Amino acid sequence: MKKCIWIAVALITMTSCNQQTEKTGYVNNTKVVSDFNEMKSAQEKWTKKNAEVRAELEGKAKQFQAEVQGYQTIMKSMTKANREKKEQELMIMQQGLQREQQAKMQEIQEGSQAEIDSIISKVKKFVNEYGKKNGYTYIYGQTEASNLFYAKEELDLTDKIVSELNATGAVTTENKQEVKKDDKKEEEVSEEKK
């Protein structure tokens, strides 16, 4: 009987030793991406570019309106052939402005989307590497679609991920600034030699 108990205890011990505890966590995908400094910079950049393009297009639209108003003031004194010719020119100008507006807005949208996709890819890669480095079996992503209905607060890695991700981005930004400083120093030295 004692042998059976010892065998049972040995089997239970061996079974429990073979079981690994799985380390899991989750991140709020939206918060990680939106709080990532690189995403904030990209949003500012594309918002600024959008405003610049809109201002440029508004200037061209005002010029076109002035042209139309100028035409309207003198159209009664024009011959029918000249009026038709001018109206055709104005219509072509208007269509050109519309095409330019569509092309520039599409360019901004595509450029912005490409950069956002790149940033999201970078975040995914970082979370993957973070999980491997810190021994996680699973890191789940919480989205606006609420695919994660409940999880303990201590499993939320969102703030840790954002903090480390931004620290990595800061290092990258600092390195870029150092490279620029080094380039300026080299330019100054080469100019002094001349």
How many helices? 5
CATH architecture: 2-Layer Sandwich
* Terminal Cα span: 98 Å
Domain unit count:
1
Q: Tell me the overall shape.
A: rod-shaped
Q: Please tell me the overall pLDDT.
A: 81
Return residue spans where pLDDT drops below 50 for at least 5 consecutive residues: 172-180, 189-194
CATH superfamily: Skp domain
Q: Under the CATH scheme, which class?
A: Alpha Beta
CATH topology description: Protein Binding, DinI Protein, Chain A
Helix and strand layout, with pairings?
Blueprint: H1 2-18, E1 24-28, H2 29-35, H3 37-74, H4 80-133, E2 138-142, H5 158-193
Helix pairs in contact: 2-5, 3-4
Structural features, described:
The protein is mainly alpha-helical and 194 residues long. Mean pLDDT is 81; it is low at 172-180 and 189-194. Helix 2 runs parallel beside helix 5 (158-193) and helix 3 (37-74) packs antiparallel against helix 4. It has one domain: Protein Binding, DinI Protein, Chain A (2-Layer Sandwich), CATH 3.30.910. It is rod-shaped. It has helices at 2-18, 29-35, 37-74, 80-133, 158-193, and strands at residues 24-28, 138-142. 7% of the residues are buried.
Main attributes of the structure:
2 strands; 194 residues; mainly alpha; Protein Binding, DinI Protein, Chain A; two-stranded parallel sheet; 78% helix; disordered C terminus
Summarize the structure.
By secondary structure, the chain is mainly α.
